[in-house]
Amino acid sequence: MNSKITRDILETVGSLSVATGDIVATLLESPYGASYNELHKNLKGREARRTKKEAARQAQQKFYSAISRLKQDGLIQQEARRWQLTSQGKKKLSELKQQPISPFPVRSYRKTKVNHPTLVIFDIPEKERRKRYWLRTQLRALGFTMLQKSVWLSTHQLPLEFVEDLSLLKLLPHVHIFSIHHFGTLESTE
């Protein structure tokens, strides 16, 4: 094998993890005597096209899965190559239109400064990540700063409405609120 081709293949494989088929296809699609940079550029373009195709395929699959699910639930039907709502589908659509778009409270809580900092620590299960995202957004809006992803600190008091919303969302068992009266590290007494 030509040493230039060997070097180009080794450089390509060394610079990024690629499938054998991609290397071969890139070499075959590239003009004779293409430089390493040209090969690398062609390989990257090939990967980008594949990634775009894969994303489109996944989106299409999600769409067809949703259509299949709606059909199985009796909410839509196909007649003469056109999809139509069934009477059950029309009823469901009417119900959905009456529901609020967000299942989370949308409020503007009032900020009140306090003398003692407030610390909020939470551990919300992964299956409720949307609630965790909502909580972080609300804490940020209330003037809290993130010390760690689930540890927040502020010199603002948490409004009663906020605590009520935590209860409404069933988050109180996962959220711990502390008022800090002393800062610093405890020194050991020997």
Question: What does this entry look like structurally?
Answer:
The protein is of the alpha+beta class. The chain contains 6 helices and 6 strands; from the N terminus they run αααββαβαββαβ. The longest helix is centred in the N-terminal third of the chain and has 37 residues, at 36-72. The strands form 2 sheets. It has a 4-stranded antiparallel β-sheet, with no helix packed on it. Strands 1-2 form a two-stranded antiparallel ribbon. A hairpin with a 2-residue loop joins strand 1 (76-79) and strand 2. It folds into 2 domains: 1-99, no CATH class; 112-179, 2-Layer Sandwich (Alpha-Beta Plaits), CATH 3.30.70.240.
What would the keywords be for this entry?
190 residues; alpha+beta; Alpha-Beta Plaits; 2 domains; 4-stranded antiparallel β-sheet; two-stranded antiparallel ribbon; flat
